């Protein structure tokens, strides 16, 4: 993990917003907080991805289109045919 690499070099990392300080000294509380922040971030990413997939499914039900615009497809076809 990045924080472990930095603290192994006798440097410290401070998160001002969360009021956390990670130093080269092993601290059980620091490890707990780091793992909790990581779990929350992973959960948020999963929720965002779930909502994104739901939105795509709803748009497809309504007949929405995805992918490149037709003008790019036509341009690519013309370039490959003539070029």
Secondary structure elements and their pairing?
Elements: H1 2-8, E1 13-15, E2 20-22, H2 28-61, H3 70-82
Antiparallel strand pairs: 1-2
Characterization of the model:
- Helix content is 65%, strand content 7%.
- The protein has helices at residues 2-8, 28-61, 70-82; strands at 13-15, 20-22.
- It has one domain (2-82).
- The radius of gyration is 24 Å and the shape is elongated.
- The chain has a two-stranded antiparallel sheet.
- It is mainly alpha-helical.
- It contains 3 helices and 2 strands.
- It comes from Vibrio parahaemolyticus.
- Residues 64-73 have a biased composition (Basic and acidic residues).
Summed up, the domain count is 1
Largest sheet: 2 strands, antiparallel
Give the percentage of residues in beta strands: 5-15%
Radius of gyration: 24 Å
Q: Indicate the percent of residues in helices.
A: 55-70%
Query: How many H/I helices?
Result: 3
Total count of strands: 2
The H-and-E topology, N to C, reads as HEEHH
Q: Going across the major beta sheet, what is the strand order?
A: 1-2
């Amino acid at each position: 993990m990045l924080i472990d690499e930095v603290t192994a070099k006798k440097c410290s990392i401070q998160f001002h917003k969360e009021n956390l300080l990670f130093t080269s000294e092993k601290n059980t509380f620091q490890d707990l907080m780091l793992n909790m922040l990581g779990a929350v971030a992973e959960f948020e990413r999963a929720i965002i991805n779930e909502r994104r997939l739901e939105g795509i499914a709803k748009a497809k039900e309504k007949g929405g289109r995805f992918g490149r615009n037709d003008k790019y497809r036509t341009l690519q076809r013309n370039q490959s045919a003539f070029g």
